[in-house]
Design brief:
3 domains; HAMP_dom; nucleotidyltransferase; four-stranded antiparallel sheet; Alpha-Beta Plaits; rod-shaped; transmembrane helix; diguanylate cyclase activity; alpha+beta
Amino acid sequence: MIGLFRPPNQRLTLRQSLGRTHLVTSLTAVCMAGVLLTGIALLVLRLYADHNLELVARAISYTSEAAVVFHDEEAAREALQAITTHEDVARASIYLPSGQLLASWSRAMSTPWSGLEQYLARLILPGPVDQPMLRGGVEIARIHLVGHGQYLLLFLLQTLLAMLLCLVLSTLGALYVARRMQNSLTAPLKDLAQVAHSVSRQRILAMRVPEANIAELHALGQDFNSLLDELEAWQAHQRRENASLLHQATHDALTGLPNRALFEARLDQAVTTGRLHDERFALLYLDCDRFKQINDTLGHAAGDDVLIALARRIQHQLRPMDLVCRLGGDEFAILLTPLSQVGEAEDVVTRIQQAMADPVVLGDGSQLLAAVSIGIALYPDQGLTAADLLQQADHAMYQAKRLRRELALHDQLEFDVSAEEK
């Protein structure tokens, strides 16, 4: 019954505590009111019984006066019986002035409750009533009446039943009122506890405490929501900061491309995937020819323009799943994964070379032709580890650079010979 009985180590819930308080308060109030009203009713009943015995004695005096005058015991007894039978009287007697008993009448104990009725009469009702019978101002007899507890017992039984009914009704009423009050108090607190639990255990900061009808609980919920707003804003700020820091840690500041750290992680991942799923991929190494000369003669700003243009043109020649990274300086690396045919890598190289055939527009408006040297390493044909592939791609790139220089030198020599012949 609302937490009245519980294990010793179990804590009461707020609902149980409120319910028990309401129930105990209601029962105590009903019991106190019942006891007070019963006491007042008994006092009134006592006064009523005393007054009623006096009226009965007066009626006996009027009725049996002739029998007393003529000392007619039978007539006096009949008069007593006729009047007291229907009254709450246990015993009635008429005594002569000499103390001689003229007539008497006693109620028979016809029910099992008769003894209890007499006991209650002696305990609660006033004592016997003695009233003189006067004739011409002279006392000719004395009437002695003893009250009976029949009506008193009936009153007490009715009172107990009424109190029991009141207790039941008050208990039901207390339960109903307690339930209503508990819902109005505990429902907002339960919502607050659920939101706090979700935030604490699951880190769900988007939850909010609903509005409450009670002003104090509503203010508490709104303050808690304000705190959640601040926490959510702080968390979003932290995520943005972390994302920005992660991007800065894994991307090149100049070109916006992934840097060496991210490239090495993706290369290791590609090697693992290729080994597990028997997939081919290609690693391309490239750098810009004569980049140091461009920096030394035209300045670092021109070199930056060349690197940005190179990064943009390379990106435009790749598939969405491919990756291009700036390793540092003028060195770039490309991962083509997956690769179904070797010709796909060669096609990418060709497209990049064609894209670099167009001059690069520098910041001052001037134009510059920039060429690149590209080396290719295929997995698993030319290496089974990341280190092997990097070495092979780097070696192939420098071979391509050397061949380009030799070709350029050969072309220059042929040009010089032709000029001399002319």
